[in-house]
Design a protein that fits this description.
This protein is mainly beta and 147 residues long. The chain has one domain. The protein has two helices and eight strands; from the N terminus they run ββββαβββαβ. The strands form two sheets. Strands 3-4-5-7-6 form a five-stranded antiparallel β-sheet, covered by helices on one side. A three-stranded antiparallel β-sheet has the order 1-2-8, with no helix packed on it. The two termini are 26 Å apart.
């Protein structure tokens, strides 16, 4: 399945769900959710409800856009959608700690746009096997230049 909205495109493998949306607030930026589990309806931008319901083999990818002016800030200095490093997945990277889960977080810029990548892996022990799944999705992401 291919998703496209707000100048962002992502391809999802069979069995994955996803969405790209913006909140109604005029200052809101796009958010991408992709997971190999059902996405909770009306979830928050960091998909904490979905993360709470994930089984050990679950994987959740969240990409949140920030103001374009931040694309040149040091925090967003990495250029291009990153691959994940399974060794860096840790419970301490989770927005909300859920026993057994691991998180991965990176900031980057692409085409003059600033993003945060947040990944939740259902079980710390599965970080290495989850990385190729996540990287496969991340490799499909295309981001249009800031308009």
């Amino acid at each position: 399945m291919n998703l496209s909205a707000h100048g962002i495109r992502v391809g999802l493998p069979p069995g994955w769900e996803g969405r790209i949306y913006k909140r109604p607030d005029p200052a809101a930026q796009p958010v991408v959710h992709a997971a190999n589990v059902a996405l909770a309806p009306d979830d928050g931008d960091f998909a904490t409800r979905t993360a709470e319901l994930m089984p050990p083999d679950g994987v959740l990818v969240v990409m949140v856009e920030y103001e374009p002016a931040l694309a040149t800030a040091a925090q967003f200095a990495a250029s291009g959608v990153p691959e994940i490093d399974p060794a860096a997945a840790s419970p301490s990277n989770l927005l909300r700690r859920i026993p057994g889960q691991a998180g991965y977080q990176r900031f980057f810029n692409d085409n003059g746009r600033a993003f945060g990548l947040y990944v939740v892996i259902g079980a710390v022990a599965r970080a290495r096997s989850a990385a190729p799944k996540v990287d496969g999705v991340l490799a499909t992401i295309e981001i249009d230049p800031v308009s």
